[in-house]
Amino acid sequence: MFVYTETEYVLKALGEKLRRARIRKGDTQAIFAARLRVSIPTLRAVEKGSPTVSLSIFLNALSVLGRIEDMDKVLLP
């Protein structure tokens, strides 16, 4: 699978931000993975910014963290 360098950077940054938000919330990986209804290895992939993870899982993570409204800022005119 071909991934643009910029995409890799953005996904890694998003994964790291999600990891920090999870930690601030006080959730372990096991708890947060359960909230997302994914396995711990999948959550680890999310937090590493893996391009193979479905966008819907990233969006679900934002929702669980109460930050889904941040997506409204994407592609503003």
Question: What are the main properties of this structure?
Answer:
77 residues, 4 helices
Question: Explain this structure to me?
Answer:
- By secondary structure, the protein is an all-alpha fold.
- Helix content is 62%, strand content 0%.
- The chain contains four helices and no strands.
- The mean pLDDT is 92.
**Number of spatially distinct domains:** 1
CATH architecture: Orthogonal Bundle
The CATH topology corresponds to 434 Repressor (Amino-terminal Domain)
Report the helical percentage.
Answer: 55-70%
What structural class is derived from the secondary structure elements? Answer: mainly alpha
3D shape: globular
Largest sheet: none
What sequence of helices (H) and strands (E) makes up the elements?
A: HHHH
- pLDDT below 50 for ≥5 consecutive residues: which ranges? none
Query: What is the H level of CATH, i.e. the homologous superfamily?
Result: lambda repressor-like DNA-binding domains
Mean pLDDT: 92
Strand content: under 5%
Total count of helical runs of at least 4 residues: 4
CA-CA gap between termini? 30 Å
CATH class: Mainly Alpha
Number of strands: 0
What is the alpha-carbon Rg in Å?
A: 12 Å
